[in-house]
Amino acid sequence: MIAQSTFGQLPSPDNSSVELFTLTNDNGMEVRAISYGAVIQSILVPDVNGRVADVTLGCDTLEGYLAGTPHFGAVVGRYANRIAGGRFTLDGRTYQLATNNGPNHLHGGIKGFDTFNWHGIRLDLGDAVGVSFSRVSPDGEEGYPGALATRVTYTLTERNELIIDFLATTDRATPVNLSQHAYFNLRGHDAGEMHNHLLQIFADAFTPVDAHLIPTGTIQPVHGTPFDFRTPIAIGARLDADNPQIRLGSGYDHNYVLKRRDSPELVHAARVVDSVGGRTLDVHTTEPGMQLYTGNFLRGNVEGKNGHRYGRRSAFCLETQHFPDSPNHPEFPSTILRPGSEYRSRTVWAFGISTATHAKP
Length: 361
What we know:
By secondary structure, the protein is mainly beta.
């Protein structure tokens, strides 16, 4: 089932209505998405005992999002993650983007995709329901070349999958790297620290960063480092390890190189298990990378749902993406979209239940 209602109204001079789309399936799962920022505002899933909790961070009101959040549940773009110095050269011309992360460009700049009201339409797909959000980013927005027509579609299936599909086209060559920036805590958005979640990442390598969290250009094996999640381990087990990369990120804020062949097919990127409530999350994606971020810069200064303030490391992100700063690293998979081509990306969040937990009735 899908329902549509009004979430709020943007202030003058915009005055447009922000729409709320509520997707539900027959298994007790519910997803709420709003047109502002194409934000996923809540995800309700049951645990092993049938108790339903909202497992993603967010705000109860439009005013909360307008006041500013660290991209809770938003679509980030035109380029997710960082571009060094906010600068890149394309076809012999150098472009200067807005800088909003020290000297760097982060998640689309000062006014990224998360700050716009998208146009949403409901989708009844028979065995699934969804919502499709679209907008056109004009030529020159935040310094990017070309007009970019973008659409993101969220589809909820009866298998408790939330499918995220991106589609974009351009009239000039431009970098594109879109991602969904949900923060997860499988015990509930207000459950506090997420250290005991068991995490497995299907990657043999990651991209180390410099002091500005920009990739150095090297690909480093995870073997023998705190970045090795090839077998399940608690996220917090090595979160404060004596490791130079951990110190640079104040925890995990790094891109993993996913194991995939040169094909557009989905690959299994990660699996997370809440060892208490039994909720699970499996991430599959067509993207070559995934950023693990452990909420290191959450400070409790944003009032979230039910008045809860989200403290440091109270949630984690698994941002499927191309690699950070790819326009400045020709050795990385290309993020350049050209006229006549389509940018397509799919990520699937599959929620489930594991009975191998310490859950209590």
